Amino acid sequence: MKKIIFIVSLLLALILYNYPVFNSSGISYILILSCFIIICFAGAKLYTSNTKHDYDSIEKESDTLQRNDGDFQYTNDGFYIKKEFIKWNQIVEVNSFHIPILHRQHQSGIEVITDHNHYELKDNNTSGIEKFIDKLYENLPDGEIISASTRMNNYGLKKIKLYDRNKTISH
Q1: Is the pTM of this model over 0.85?
Q2: How far is residue 81 CA from its own chain's centroid?
Q3: Residue 9, class by beta-carbon neighbours within 10 Å (0-12 exposed, 13-18 middle, 19+ buried)?
Q4: How many other CB atoms are found less than 10 A from the CB of residue 72?
Q5: What is the pLDDT at residue 154?
Q6: Alpha-carbon 100 to chain mean position
Q7: E-assigned strand segments in the chain
Q8: DSSP letter (8 states) at residue 128
Q9: HSE on the CB side for 91, CA within 13 Å?
């Protein structure tokens, strides 16, 4: 965009220096107007957001997040997090949580409760959480999701039960 603005500005300067172009003021006015329009649109494009939100860029970003193991290492029997191995069959409960902070920000993530420990994995500082969520759905037996399992306290903490080993659906 900067090159286009520079080239069109040079063209505009040449048109103004050699006015009237082709011995016609009408052609000169059209060229000057065209140059101003190109400079305005190129400048607007230059100063707007650089992030692309088309289908291909979103799909590419999603694929990158799905391939990123991040803080996790996966095996057939379970996964490693923080150098601790957790088997899929040790997971008792999985919850999603949303915590408002000073009514302006929020923190969200996944809570994993095992037979022996409790883990809170926050979305914003746990690398690879997108792939981890997919791996949970792949490796845990189907659990019952009940809309009444949403819990909320006076401070706005929302907790949604995603999986409960004690309420698995048998096929």
Answers
A1: no
A2: 22
A3: middle
A4: 19
A5: 63
A6: 20
A7: 72-74, 78-81, 84-87, 91-101, 105-114, 118-122, 150-152, 158-164
A8: T
A9: 27
Report which DSSP code applies to 54: S
**From edge to edge, which strands make up the β-sheet containing 118-122?**
118-122, 105-114, 91-101, 158-164, 150-152
**8 A C-beta contact, residue 119 and residue 109:** no
Cis peptide before 141 (omega within 30 of 0): no
pLDDT at 171: 45
Q: What residue type is 110 in one-letter code? A: I
% of the chain beyond a pLDDT of 70: 85
DSSP labels, 62-107: HHHHHH--TTEEE-SSEEEETTEEEEGGGEEEEEEEEEEETTTEEE
Residue 56's alpha-carbon distances to 52, 59, 62, 116, in angstroms, are 9, 5, 10, 43
**What is the token pair recorded at 38?**
């190109």
User: Which tokens hold the place of 2?
Assistant: 């900067």
CA distances from 170 to 2, 43, 144, 160 (A): 62, 61, 10, 22
